[in-house]
Structure formats: C-alpha cells, structure tokens
Amino acid sequence: MQQDEPTTREAVRPRRSRSRLLRWTVWLALAASALWLLRTPVMRGLGRYLSAADADAHVDAVYVLGGSVKDRGLEAARVHRQGLSDRFVFTGAPVPSALEALGIDSTEAECTRNAAVEAGLPRELTTVLNAGTSTYEEFEALLAHARAEGIDSVMVISSCFHLRRIGRVFREPFRKAGITVLLHGAPSSTFDEAHWWRSEEGLIMLNNEYVKLVYYRFRY
User: Fold this and answer.
1) Run of H or E residues at 91
2) pTM of the complete model
3) For residue range 96-119, what is the model confidence (pLDDT) as tens digits?
4) What pLDDT was estimated at residue 30?
5) Which of 28, 48, 73, 126 is the most exposed place for a label (fewest CB within 10 A)?
6) CA distances to 14, 135, 204 from 201, in Å
7) Helices (DSSP H) in the chain: which residue ranges?
8) Per-domain residue ranges for the chain?
C-alpha cells in the first residue's frame, strides 16, 4: 500500500491541473464575451473622456488654437453667432504643409481666422497671434496675452478630443492668474466623434491623444 501512494498522488495532480486550466479558460471566455458585448459603450466612453467640454457662457475673449483650420474657424463663427464674445484671438505659428508646398506662407492662425471670417465672423473682432508650434507653446503665449490685456475669462476652442489635455495645461496656471477658462470643442468634419472607431481618422486621433496625455503628464 505504501508503494501505491506516490502513484495515486501523481494521478491526482494532472486532474487538478486540467481542472484549473478549464476554469481559467471559462473565465477568459466569459471576459472576452463581456468585452465584446460592451465594446460600443467602452469605446464611446474613451471618446467622451477626451471630450471634456464646459458649459457655454459669455467670456471676455475666445482663443482659437491652431490646427484643424476649417473646423475651428467654423466653430469660432458659431460661437460669435451665439453672442458669447466679441473678441477672438487665433494662434498657431506653423505654415500648413499644403500651403508651404505652393509657396504660400500663411500661418495656421491666419488660415483659421480666414475660415472664421468666411463663415461670418467680423474681421474687426479678430486678432492673429502667430505664436505656438505646440499646445504648450500656445498656452504660454495666450496666458501672457490674457495678462497683458487684463482679460478675466476666456473660452479655448480646439478639436473635441483635445480638450482633456488642454484643460490640464491651461486651467491651473490661468486660475492662479485669476482668469476663468472654459473649454469648447469644434466637431471634426472628417469623422464622427460619437463613433470614432468606424474611421481611420478617428482611430488615429484617439490613439494620438491618449499618447499625448501620457507625454504631457510627465513632460509638463
């Protein structure tokens, strides 16, 4: 009998291993099924987290950041039609590559202002600030501008998926300067933010923003 005990133990171990493997397989299958069923709410949640817009209110000035020229220009004109401000400042020092290839040296700030004016924003209410090659550089230029002009409240317009990162950069320094910041999103004309995963543009935008969130978290 004593010689049979090791054999019995060795027979039990494989059964326990198979049972453990089966349990893990079942749990993984259930988890995968749950993720698949919840895929749409999860992906929408990822987009909503980035789109951290504030409620609209009247402000002393609207700051329109460089990039996505048409979308942000159109949104600036909409904000004006809503009567939320009569002062609009456009930033962005780079010249869009398509214009540069044609020998045109209009900056992002100038291009966005032109898009806004074409959409109905009176030119006399606009200022072009050819500064900033990144969100952080634009923040520095705009904080200096707000302080110099004695501005107490601003609205910052950028693409919807940029707002979370912009809030982290702008809010605290502006608050310390006694300036209220409201974030306002310009909807994309190339993809639907509510279904971003259905287009290549949306996939790239969301992926880039989460990478930038991590980068800005440790860089600034």
Assistant:
1) strand 88-91
2) 0.83
3) 888 878 888 899 999 999 999 999
4) 66
5) 28
6) 50, 20, 5
7) 5-37, 39-50, 69-81, 97-101, 108-118, 135-149, 163-176, 200-219
8) 5-37, 50-219
